[in-house]
Design brief:
With 181 residues, the protein is of the alpha+beta class. Helix content is 33%, strand content 34%.
């Protein structure tokens, strides 16, 4: 099993053993109709699969003895890929959109930013609101905090604050997420 490195940990790729790749001496066999054939030696199980013109597939390798099923392996792989594709389709893709402003943002510009944030939230995305400070503005973080509180008040009907305003360098950020329906 080759390991795929992923930022600190590794994920072992799960490979299904079929026919001669199965290493157990004895296996619990289930035939193609779902009937239990009992615990058989590997050679007897392979012979039973060959007799039906199908493959012997190890479906539960960690069981004692391992469980093998007599089936068409190509069809099994196809069904697994279809299930995986269907599951992937159903997962919601939430993106993090960003709205940037300054502490001295005028009212009309502020309303445009609120409209954009509202649109992003209605699409089901999270919104990162960033207030950028320039020069000496950074000495008055309360202006940025006031702006972020104002935007959460404007959007409280469809969103909630996921993280509260935090200052890092010259940026004050906050994440807003849509309220689940």
């Amino acid at each position: 099993m080759p390991a795929i490195p992923l930022g600190g940990g590794t994920i072992a790729k799960q490979e299904t053993n079929i026919n001669r790749a199965i290493r157990a001496r004895e296996v619990r066999v289930v035939d193609d109709e779902g009937t239990q054939l009992g615990v058989l030696s590997l050679s007897d199980a392979l012979a039973a699969a060959e007799q039906r013109g199908l493959d012997l597939v190890e479906v539960s390798p960690n069981a004692d003895p391992p469980v093998c099923r007599i089936m068409d392996y190509g069809k099994y792989k196809y069904q697994l890929s279809k299930r995986a594709a269907e599951a992937k389709k159903k997962t919601a893709k939430v993106e993090l959109k960003e709205v940037k402003m300054r502490p001295k943002t005028e009212e009309h510009d502020f309303q445009v930013k609120v409209r954009n944030a509202r649109r992003f939230l209605e699409e089901g995305n999270k919104v990162k609101v960033t207030v950028m400070f320039r020069g000496r503005e950074v000495t008055h973080p309360e202006f940025g905090r006031r702006l972020l509180v104002k935007i959460t008040e404007e959007l409280k009907d469809i969103a909630q604050a996921e993280s509260y305003p935090t200052m890092s360098g010259r940026f004050m950020t906050m994440v807003i997420s849509p309220i689940k329906k």
